[in-house]
Amino acid sequence: MAFFTHQRRSFSSSALRNVVIKQVTIIGGGQMGTGIAQVAASTGHTVTLVDTNDDILKKAVKRIEGSLKRVVKKKYADKPEAGEEYIQKVLQNVSTSTDAGSAAQVSDLVLESIVENLKIKQDLFCQLDEAAPAHTLFASNTSFLPISDIASATNRLDRFGGLHFFNPVPMMKLVEVIGTPTTSQETFDSLLNFSKALGKTPVCCKDTPGFIVNRLLLPYIKDSVLLHERGHGSKEDIDIAMKLGLGHPMGPFELCDYVGLDIMKSMVDRWLAMEPKPPFAESENLNKLVAEGKLGIKTGEGFYKK
Ligand code: 3HC
Hints:
Blueprint lengths: L11 H4 L7 E5 L3 H12 L3 E5 L3 H22 L4 H13 L1 E4 L2 H6 L3 E4 L5 H14 L5 E4 L6 H5 L8 E5 L9 E6 L5 H13 L3 E6 L6 H17 L5 H12 L5 H8 L1 H14 L9 H8 L15
Parallel strand pairs: 1-2, 1-4, 2-3, 4-5, 5-6, 7-8
Antiparallel strand pairs: 6-7
Helix pairs in contact: 2-3, 3-4
Bound molecules: 3-hydroxybutanoyl-coenzyme A (3HC).
């Protein structure tokens, strides 16, 4: 548990024994996985992005390219050719595969960002545990599932931690680095150093529900939804209030649509399952929208219709 007691120390004492992460496998070509792949490739890491079929992977690479174009539009505003060169250089660092096992065989880190289902994550890591070399670190980008539960499917409990990124990954500076009681100090330090190498600011988290950000975000989102359901404020007014009153870049309903209502609901459900008396009630409105497939920006409609 040492990493929880000296979070701000220099890393030099254990740096020699740390895994220096250069080769990264990212499992999951969705919004988060592609964002992480983009940032890792942009910072000189060799990335293999893995998903179940080539169609998804083609779309994922297109998404990375689109996001890189947005980056270079600002960064290379006066030098479009240098911008195009930069994009190609970054893309050269990204390869794709439908074979997670082969990718893991040559990786320093395997990071999953797949569906929020404990059993599926456990099965994935159980298989990869066989394939990956001993030095390879495993990490999950789960929003809410306990890292210890995911890691329990493997024999590398000391080399397993959490790396929780925020959407949109290329823009959001934070990474939550999560250590379980069995994560070794060297693994934790390697994950911290990797987050810094990505140009992010890491914070140290315990393996508690929602870590730091989602633990605080969820009650806020739920209260916003319930405030609206009780008729105490329109969605628009609540969003405006939180943006102009507290300087949030998005209001709670805009943020729900942005992150995805299915993701929000999965976190709420998980919390309800864990706590017999959660600090909030279930939202009929959120459940109804998810049941109707209205998941936010990704389906064209959530709380708002685009
Ligand atoms: N890739 C690259 N560049 C991007 C980008 C992306 N995905 N998104 C935004 N940008 C850059 C571009 O330069 C863009 O300019 P452009 O539109 O001309 O290309 C510029 O930022 C401005 O973007 P926007 O005009 O879309 O709007 P904003 O200035 O409002 O910025 C935002 C967008 C950064 C998303 C901002 O609204 C924001 O910070 N929102 C809050 C996001 C947030 O809270 N995220 C955390 C969610 S919780 C989570 O992820 C945890 C999980 O477990 C649930």
